[in-house]
Amino acid sequence: MSQRPSYAVGTGLFIVLGFATLGYLATQTTSVANTNRGPSYVVEAHFANIGQLKERAPVKVAGVRIGQVQSIVLDPGKETADVKLAIDKRYDKIPDDSVATIFTSGLLGDQYVGIQYGNSSKALAEGGTLALTRPAQQLEEMLGKFFGAGGAADNLGGSYTVKARFTNVGALSAGAPVKMAGVAIGSVKSVKADPVKLDALVELSIDKKYSQIPDDSAAAVFTSGLIGTQYVAIQPGGSPDALKDGDELVLTQSALQLEDLIGKFLVNGSSSDKKPDNGAASSSSSSPRPASTELAATPRSIPGVTHDAA
User: Fold this and answer.
1) How much is the pLDDT for 295?
2) How far apart are CA 183 and CA 143, in angstroms?
3) For position 308, what pLDDT does the model report?
4) What is the mean pLDDT of residues 159-177?
5) Residue 149 scores a pLDDT above 90
6) Strand 177-180 to 159-166 pairing
7) Arithmetic mean of pLDDT, 42-57
8) Is 192 helix (H, G, I), strand (E, B) or coil?
9) How far are the Cα atoms of 48, 67, 68, 84, 85 from residue 42, in angstroms, in the given order?
């Protein structure tokens, strides 16, 4: 009888202690997030996708907190989110060509803005804009990298757009990598069905660093591994003229379906199975016969085949 009250008291104390610990951690986290280390200045950054980024999220350089997200606004008519960053004035020498990227702390942690310094001698000023940004990565993109699709090129130096038409794009989607010699040089900008030509029109955004791709190059839809994601591979041609913005890649190869691969495998397998029979038939004769003679032979000359007498 005396043990039950002691168990109840112990359980109650454990629960109270647990709630107290959670409350302490919550207050500590909030205090860290709202810590104002002194005067700050505000700069802007525009992101195509902010993921789960929230106001008061940290702004970091080399993993060290230097400020926080002040506001996130999507203006009507715009396709990018305007993010204002309040940065401690002690860090007033950030080059104006620096790159702002949205990262995630750990696998399922909160998101923050990381700044990677550029090489410009001019520093960001109050009200300035970080023109080079990388949006938050989606789970699909991370899974695509895990399965070997590779990431698309960053295109931080600008890009140009070319088009390609395919009779079948398979599971190709916007954001998929564009590769040349296995290296990502861009990404798929859009995939649309053409109601007139009854094919798929694919727009490819290619990094301007690769501006010397011959205009007779070929584009093909490939799959990374056996069940990986699909991407567009470009095989350079031999033309002296380079692709320009808005050009179309005329030579294309559509995505191969699993049924096509199985069909080719079965056809090749059945062909290889017949070869030993032909070899056995030829070995049974005293001298090899030419192929034309073998094709013209009557059914009676084929071993193992019997016929009724006329």
Assistant:
1) 37
2) 18
3) 45
4) 90
5) no
6) unpaired
7) 90
8) strand
9) 20, 10, 10, 6, 5
Q: Is the pLDDT of residue 46 over 70?
A: yes
The DSSP result for 131-170, as a single string, is -EEEPPPPHHHHHHHHTT--PPP--TT-EEEEEEEES--T
pLDDT tens digits along 250-308: 999 888 765 555 666 666 655 555 555 554 444 444 444 443 333 333 343 334 344 44
pLDDT at position 158, please? 81
* 207 strand-pairing partners: 159
Look up residue 150 and give its amino acid. Answer: G
Residue whose C-alpha is closest to residue 206's, from 193, 189, 220, 181 = 189
Q: For the chain, give every domain's residue range.
A: 40-135, 142-257
DSSP letter string, 240-283: SSBP-TT-EE-EEEPPPPHHHHHHHHHHHHHHHHHHHHHHHHHH
Q: Which two tokens stand for residue 194?
A: 């053409």
Residue 99 to residue 114: CA distance in whole angstroms: 8
Which residues does 155 contact at the CB level (< 8 Å), separation at least 6? 186, 187, 205, 207, 208
| Contact assessment for residue 54 and residue 112, using Cβ atoms and an 8 Å cutoff | no
Which percentage of the chain shows pLDDT scores above 90?
37
Half-sphere exposure of 101 (CA within 13 A, CB side): 17
Residue 64 in tokens: 């060290």
Structure tokens given for 6: 């002691």
